[in-house]
Amino acid sequence: MVRRIGVFGGTFDPPHLGHLVAASEAAFRCALDEVVFVPTGDPWQKHHLKVTDAPARLAMTRSAVEPDPLFRVSTCDIERGGATYAVDTVADVRAEYDEEVDLHFIIGADSLENLHTWHRVEELCRAVKFIALNRPGHSRREVDTTFGARVEFIDMPAVDLSSTECRERVRDGRPIRYLVTDPVAAYVREHGLYRG
Ligand SMILES: Nc1ncnc2c1ncn2[C@@H]1O[C@H](COP(=O)(O)OP(=O)(O)OP(=O)(O)O)[C@@H](O)[C@H]1O
Ligand SMILES: O=C(O)c1ccc[n+]([C@@H]2O[C@H](COP(=O)([O-])O)[C@@H](O)[C@H]2O)c1
Questions:
Q1: What is the pLDDT of residue 21?
Q2: Residue 43 beta carbon below 6 angstroms from any ligand 2 atom
Q3: Cα separation of 108 and 137, whole Å?
Q4: Which pLDDT tens digit goes with each residue over 123-174?
Q5: CA dihedral 189, 84, 164, 159 (to 10 degrees)
Q6: In ligand 2, which atom is closest to the CA atom of 111?
Q7: Is 10 close to ligand 2, i.e. is its CB under 6 Å away?
Q8: How far is the CA of 63 from the centre of ligand 1 (A)?
Q9: What is the pLDDT of residues 90-118, one digit of tens each?
Q10: Pairwise CA distance, residues 38 & 190, whole Å
Q11: Per the database record, which ranges form the Cytidyltransferase-like domain (predicted)?
Q12: From CA 191, how far away is CA 26, in angstroms rounded?
């Protein structure tokens, strides 16, 4: 039996409940054997934003996924260096297995809308199928399939939350408890992240 692996790339600055619900729902609905969270090294489309250092995002992502035996973290994007391209992510994750695996790239509706801007997208689309999740304010159906994307649309309980909102809440002194896991909230507090 070829194992079905979900690859969930994200900047995870910080990881929040929307990410965890998306991964869990994708795993359940698509019978995934494992979901690999891959924090970006250098998210090139976020160069206009201040992104938290990779070790902190990695530590938060590890702590967020640790309780779920179906989830693990790969550091491949952080270790590779240079701009993070999903086409490299999936090649590196594939290389982490000794056996043949069927890779599914988990993606929110907002990212799916921008898929046509991704590096070597046709090659990426040959390498993986996409599991696309609804995200408030974004239509999942607007995907340009001319480059061959194979997309399965999954409905998850809508989580109207972003890392941006979490960062803004911390900056403004508002709570993020219950929007992120307790260990992530503790990490943010103890390391003074997002205080502006
Ligand atoms: N609430 C959500 N519901 C569904 N998908 C989500 C949600 N939040 C993030 N995602 C998806 O998770 C992946 C990683 O997202 P990312 O780490 O950039 O989080 P974000 O909340 O979009 O961050 P930011 O606000 O900093 O842009 C993307 O594919 C994104 O579409
Ligand atoms: O391959 C690309 O060119 C590309 C461009 C933008 C985003 N991505 C990937 O999309 C995932 C979510 O990225 P982000 O920046 O929305 O956190 C992550 O795995 C990124 O590497 C990939």
A1: 98
A2: yes
A3: 11
A4: 999 999 999 999 998 876 656 667 789 999 999 999 999 999 999 999 999 9
A5: -100
A6: 16
A7: yes
A8: 18
A9: 999 999 999 999 999 999 999 998 999 99
A10: 23
A11: 7-169
A12: 31
Q: What six digits make up the tokens of 154?
A: 């999954």
Tell me if ipTM is over 0.95: yes
Say if ligand 2 is within 6 A of residue 163 CB: no
The pair of three-digit structure tokens given for residue 8, joined into one six-digit string = 């969930």
Is 40 touching ligand 1 by the criterion CB < 6 Å? Answer: no
**What is the set of domains in the chain, with CATH numbers?**
3-158+172-190 (3.40.50.620)
Q: Quote the pTM value.
A: 0.98
* 112 CA distance to ligand 2 middle (Å): 10
Residue 30 CB: number of other CB atoms within 10 A? 16
Nearest to 43 by CA among 98, 73, 84, 94: 84
